[in-house]
Each structure stands twice: as C-alpha cells, then as structure tokens.
C-alpha cells in the first residue's frame, strides 16, 4: 500500500490551475520531497493531502485513508509544519516540538 497516492489531483482557483492532473505514488519507507519554484503547487498539493483545501477534481489517500472523507485519521497519524506557521516567542524550540 502506498503511503501517499494521488490520481488526477487538480486544484483551480478562480479558473487558474494551481495543480493539474497530479498522479503520484510514494511507497511506505520512501523519502519524497516537493521541489519547485514558487507557484509550482507544492504547498497546494500538501494542503490537499491534509484536507486543508479541497481539490477541484481527482482524489488522494494518505496511509490508505481517503484525504477528503477521513482527514482527522490522517492528522492523528502524521505531522506537518505549514508554511505559514508562526511560533510563540515565549517558547523554546523544544517546547514547540513537545
């Protein structure tokens, strides 16, 4: 079973494509990085995998769990640091991780 799998995953904002027909399979144990210039769709893809935003079409699973029907189960088994994450200046690095 793939750790991450997408099929024709697409996201359009006001008709402008952010991600188009992404079909991806990342096997369990593989290390995969999203690389590309600004606007390439890296953050949008991750946001769709975590159900922070909904795809226009296509589907995605994470750890065998459908990203749009059971996102809370994915969140319970994964960790993510969103690109717009703000830290609390009163906490140490260790306290943020804990």
From TrEMBL:
**What species was this sequence derived from?**
Halogeometricum borinquense (strain ATCC 700274 / DSM 11551 / JCM 10706 / KCTC 4070 / PR3)
The molecular function terms of the Gene Ontology recorded here are: ATP binding; ATP hydrolysis activity
Q: Which UniProt keywords apply?
A: Transport
UniProt-recorded name of the protein: ABC transporter domain-containing protein
Family, according to the entry, reads as follows:
Belongs to the ABC transporter superfamily.
Q: Which residues form the ABC transporter domain?
A: 20-95
PANTHER family of this UniProt entry? Answer: ABC TRANSPORTER, ATP-BINDING PROTEIN (PTHR43335)
